Amino acid sequence: MIQKLDGEPPFGFDCGRAEQNEFLYERAWDDQQEFLSTTYLFLSDDVLAAYATVLMDSLSLSRTERGGIPYRHVSACKVGQLGVDRRFQARGLGRFSLSYAVALARDVAARIACRYVSLDAQPDLIEWYERFGFTVNRGRQAERIEDARRHQRDHHAIAVSMRLDLRAL
User: Fold this and answer.
1) In what order do the strands lie in the sheet with 73-84?
2) Exposed, middle or buried, 92 (CB in 10 Å: 0-12/13-18/19+)?
3) What is the chain's pLDDT, residue by residue, as a tens digit (169 residues)?
4) What is the DSSP annotation of 85-99?
5) What total of structural domains would you count in the chain?
6) Residue 121: phi, psi to the nearest 5?
7) H/E segment holding residue 32
8) Of 59, 123, 159, 162, which residue has the fewest beta carbons closer than 10 angstroms?
9) Residue 17's domain spans which residues?
10) Residues 131, 135, 141, 145, Cα dihedral to 10°
11) What pLDDT, on a 0 to 100 scale, did the predictor assign at position 142?
12) Angle at 35 between CA 31 and CA 41, to 5 degrees
């Protein structure tokens, strides 16, 4: 069953990634009430198995990345967070949750201009997202790497900006 978050999330979710767990319990409901993002819960027998948070975004693309698009900033629907509880991992629920978020973006695109689905992937998940057709936003990622170096952070550990072109689906 899929449902929109309608209060504090149920206790007991752990996807094995602190950032996603903390977001779910510390920010998801507050952000949703402020119209900053919307979180969808994926339940299995009333147990929270996965969640996906979506929001609107604007991608800054380099000239080569945008092809014939004349604008530097292009509309996108962003997958802000995605997590699958450890008990449900390796069962296709991540793929299902991502597909659901892409379907939401396509629905938005049918009514309001929305060209891409964007997300910030952890480095170890880049290949997983590439299997779904996501590509690295090279211009944006170069900016992130430069910022990390400037602030003496490990640029290999920063999230990677990625996009999926809805017109290619």
Assistant:
1) 2-4, 38-44, 47-60, 73-84, 116-121, 160-165, 135-136
2) exposed
3) 999 999 999 999 999 999 999 999 999 999 999 999 999 999 999 999 999 999 999 988 888 888 888 988 899 999 999 999 999 999 999 999 999 999 999 999 999 989 999 999 998 999 999 999 999 988 777 777 787 778 877 776 778 899 999 988 7
4) -GGGTTSSHHHHHHH
5) 1
6) -90, 140
7) helix 28-33
8) 123
9) 2-168
10) 30
11) 74
12) 60
Q: Which residues contact 148 (CB under 8 A, 6 or more apart)?
A: 154, 155, 158
Residue whose entry in the numeric block shows the structure tokens 């396509």: 106
User: Tokens 């990625």 identify what position?
Assistant: 162
For the chain, the farthest-separated pair of C-alpha atoms sits apart, in whole angstroms, at 48
What pLDDT shows up at residue 93?
95
**Cα 150–chain centre separation:** 26
